[in-house]
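Morning. Coffee machine broken again, so started the prediction first thing and wrote up yesterday's gels while waiting. Chain of 257 residues, entered below exactly as on the submission form.
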Amino acid sequence: MLRCTWGSGVRVWGSGSGGSRSLGLFWIWCTRGAPCPVRSWSWGARSRNSAEKTPWRWGAARGLQSASPLDTRVPQDVLLFQHDRVRFFRLLGLFCACQFLFWTYLAHFAFHSLRATGAKRPDSDSQQGERPPPTLPGGAILNLGSNKWRFGFTASCLTVGSLILMGGFVFSRRSVSRVILHRGGQEVSLTTYYLFGLTSSFSVPLRHISCMSHRSEVPAMIPLKIKGRPFYFLLDKQGRITNAKLFDITVGAYRKL
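Came back before lunch.
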């Protein structure tokens, strides 16, 4: 390591390792005048001082300039997402309604039309012999006209029809048609569907929205969680994201709710 020592007008360059003087090149420059303060300097100290003064590198500076975040305080309302599926939800509403009517009719039929299968036949048919009632694999007699079977079958039909109708209703209410970021970037409006293609909108603060998965990680639906509302709101990836970068840092960002 080269070392420079300042003395009283004397500056000596040489080897700072304490080796033989023949290994280093010494240059002595003497001046007359007031004595100079004594200070030590080395290449190692220079590199440390320069690192303290300039801790960043050119690559880091270029990265900071290129990765500058977008301003979410938009001057006017911005449409972030749009997907029109009015025809699909009309057909979905028709399907759910038909299924509910079918299972309701089946429940009505089961409650009023099932009769005891083990009842005796009239006298006109008694000469031909009675047909044995149906039995289960264990040998138990299956009497579909009993109260247990009538009420059980009726309740099952009503449950299936209600689940189909409620499933279609919940899916339509959680399917998002469009997302609008309002002026200032602090509030978002979401438009969702009803059955038969009807729509409704509501507004929530942006801090109450959290995207559970990035849009590049999901195959079909982007799930959004809104504070205070059950279930996820679904954004179909077949829809159009008008501003991808602004979407990723606003609605598409994960937040701890």
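DSSP finds five helices and twelve strands in the chain. Going to sketch it on the whiteboard this afternoon.
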